[in-house]
Design a protein that fits this description.
The protein has 21 helices and no strands. By secondary structure, the protein is mainly alpha-helical.
């Protein structure tokens, strides 16, 4: 216990140093050095907790909570997403529908302030966040919480993820010391408590859903997965695997939860923000596999032939409504074809995992979510968080290494991530994942 306590003090000191540094983008060398040391402390604590007793475990858990509270006191410098969350919450408290207008729309003029509005990212685009996330933003704004209050709330949700991970480990019959690989993971602490990302809302529900489906509590699992889908859309990829394990009632509960959460918004206007379409067709950052797919379609250059085929189909079956045809024309360019291809590949890969024999729900979910993250056009460091609790539970070294390396993206600043950094982040973890897959196959 004494050594774990010393490690905890050292780690808390590093987090305090990062808080004191202020804008971490202006102190990237310091941030990355602290991140590397914190990864080492995490691995050391894991070994000590595995060999220690209940007192050592309690010290580790208390330290994990302290890390998050310390980090939550920092300014959100690596990402400005939390300002959009606060803005969306205040919009709702003022009686406005969050999905109807973008922040810079004239209908939102009276809500603009000097502390939050100037820092809202992409103010010309309506919000992209699903209804459950928006309900949480509204509740926190109603409690008159600002940026720091939002971050503390997300940090506490992340403590909930740690608790849910303990439950999952118990359901899988795996050693509980593996929780350290998430509880002390600096990527989770910095991106959630430090930057204030909403990820733990959905992650908590996903981990609980997996634990409950393994425990045979399918109705609870269906409700949790429905909530997770309305926190972030990514858990939609888990529906095929859960559906295979569920009977009719849990599936109906899943659908009902999705509908009930959306209802307060659907009854007053759009049930989802139009910003998600802009995100789907425009965003690209840090991707490797997607960039390769896009370059392949640029090399093939099949757009002229596909446009001709669409023109022939429109002449034969077209109507006065041109919206669908215009969308098809946009999709045949290399960028559109690449996005459709990776989306179908991610969906197909997730469905394929649901038919594999011998996979438990946690392993299946890790593969489905991980495949989507690797294929996505946009890969921000906090996206890796969706896989991190499951990687910790299963000792998936490739994903843990990915979580250790992905902050290197910040070296690119606001610009495009150089290929040298992308490959340095992806190739070592990918090699590890392939090796693990080959080992399992040979068994």
């Amino acid at each position: 216990m004494r050594v774990v306590s010393l490690l905890a003090v050292a780690a808390a000191t590093l987090y305090a140093i990062l808080v004191g540094a202020g804008d971490l983008k202006a102190h990237l060398a310091l941030y990355l050095a602290c991140h590397a040391l914190l990864v080492v402390f995490m691995l050391a604590a894991w070994r000590l907790v595995a060999a220690g007793g209940p007192a050592t475990f309690r010290a580790m858990f208390v330290a994990a909570v302290v890390f998050r509270l310390v980090a939550a006191s920092a300014s959100a410098s690596l990402s400005d997403d939390v300002y959009r969350y606060v803005w969306d919450g205040r919009v709702q408290v003022a009686g406005h529908h969050p999905y109807k207008f973008a922040p810079n729309d004239s209908m939102r003029v009276e809500l603009r302030d000097a502390d939050v509005y100037p820092k809202v990212n992409h103010p010309d685009i309506p919000t992209i966040y699903p209804p459950l996330a928006e309900l949480l933003f509204a509740a926190l704004a109603l409690a008159k919480l600002g940026v720091t209050g939002f971050k503390v709330a997300f940090a506490l949700l992340d403590v909930g993820v740690v608790w849910a991970l303990l439950r999952l480990l118990r359901a899988l019959g795996l050693p509980r010391d593996r929780v350290v690989l998430y509880a002390w993971n600096p990527l989770a602490v910095i991106e959630i408590a430090g930057s204030g990302h909403i990820e733990p809302l959905g992650m908590l529900l996903v981990v609980l859903a997996i634990a409950w489906i393994i425990e045979g509590k399918a109705t609870r699992a269906g409700a949790a997965l429905g909530g997770a889908i309305q926190a972030k859309l990514l858990p939609l990829l888990l529906v095929p695997g859960f559906a295979r394990r569920m009977k009719t009632l849990p599936l109906l509960v899943l659908v009902a939860v999705v509908a009930i959460i959306a209802a307060p918004y659907a009854l007053r206007g759009p049930w989802y923000g139009a910003g998600i379409l802009a995100y789907a067709v425009r965003w690209e950052h840090g991707a490797v596999l997607f960039a390769g797919v896009r370059r392949f379609f640029e090399w093939v250059d099949g757009a002229p032939y596909l446009k001709g085929a669409i023109a022939w189909a429109q002449a034969r079956w077209g109507t006065a409504e041109t919206g669908v045809w215009d969308a098809l024309y946009q999709m045949v360019w290399p960028e559109g074809l690449a996005r459709v291809t990776v989306a179908l590949a991610a969906l197909g890969f997730a469905v394929a995992q649901s038919f594999r024999r011998g996979l438990d729900a946690a392993h299946e979910a890790r593969l489905a979510l991980g495949g989507a993250i690797l294929l996505a056009p946009t890969l921000h460091p906090w996206y890796v968080l969706w896989v991190l609790p499951l990687a910790a539970a299963q000792g998936a070294g490739g994903w843990l290494l990915f979580g250790a390396l992905v902050p290197l993206q910040y070296l690119a600043g606001e610009g495009e991530v150089p290929w040298a950094i992308r490959l340095a982040i992806l190739l070592p973890p990918l090699a590890w994942m392939i090796r693990d897959a080959l080992v399992r196959f040979r068994r």
